[in-house]
Design brief:
Nuclear Transport Factor 2, Chain: A, single chain, 42% helix, 5 helices, alpha+beta, 219 residues
């Protein structure tokens, strides 16, 4: 009987020795650090994309042709007359530098043609001075003063422009534009055809826009 008790008392000891050792609990991942790292990576990728987009846009802007600068063109809106046949073109056999914005140049030239005609009709010498060189202004101002204070009205019905030549001589750029179309010199009368060549000049240093330096009437 005592041996039974002894064996019974030793049984728990054997079971505890046979039981497996306790493992430490698994470590939990720091989700906060993981999420922060993902957000930082996304922000970095977005920043790289923005920088690349701005660089590409800057290259396109530098490669785009710059608008032609004309003297006397402000922010006002003027409706140009219709072209009789073709408009804003360069003539065959012309001498035009590569990359020159012919269409933009001729649009500005036509706009100045209409504005100068209005200023001449009204006798507005200050406006005429903005479009012309000092030498041509002296000649045009004599005509305006000679006809007196009476205003005249000339309606440009149709207007076409052809770029004949663009060249650089010394410290000036030169351009020749042939204008043609029809005008109405007296209200209520039929329009008559006209043709003339404008010689425009611009300082090579870009200190001013294109100015009218001479007018040649076409026979």
């Amino acid at each position: 009987m005592p041996k039974r008790r002894g064996s019974a008392a030793a049984a728990p000891s054997a079971r505890s020795a046979a039981s497996p050792a306790r493992r430490p609990p698994p470590r939990r991942r720091n989700l906060r650090n993981s999420r922060f790292g993902g957000l930082f990576l996304l922000a970095l990728l977005a920043l790289v994309g923005v920088v690349a987009y701005k660089a590409l846009a800057r290259r396109r802007e530098e490669a785009a042709p710059r608008p032609v600068q004309f003297a006397g063109i402000g922010a006002e809106t003027i409706r140009l007359p219709a072209a009789p046949f073709s408009s804003e073109t360069a003539s065959r056999g012309q001498t035009i530098p590569a990359g020159f914005d012919t269409a933009g140049f001729l649009r500005g030239a036509k706009l100045n043609f209409v504005k100068l005609q209005v200023a001449n009709d009204l006798g507005n010498l200050d406006e005429i001075r903005e479009f012309t060189t000092a030498e041509l202004f002296d000649e045009l101002s004599k005509d305006v003063v000679g006809r007196g204070r009476g205003a005249q009205q000339t309606d440009v019905v149709t207007l076409d422009a052809d770029l004949l030549e663009v060249a650089t001589e010394g410290d000036r750029h030169w351009a020749s534009v042939r204008f043609s179309g029809t005008v109405r010199e007296t209200p209520g009368t039929a329009p008559v055809a006209f043709g003339e060549v404008w010689n425009l000049a611009k300082p090579a240093d870009g200190s001013s826009g294109w100015l009218l330096a001479g007018i040649q009437q076409m026979q």
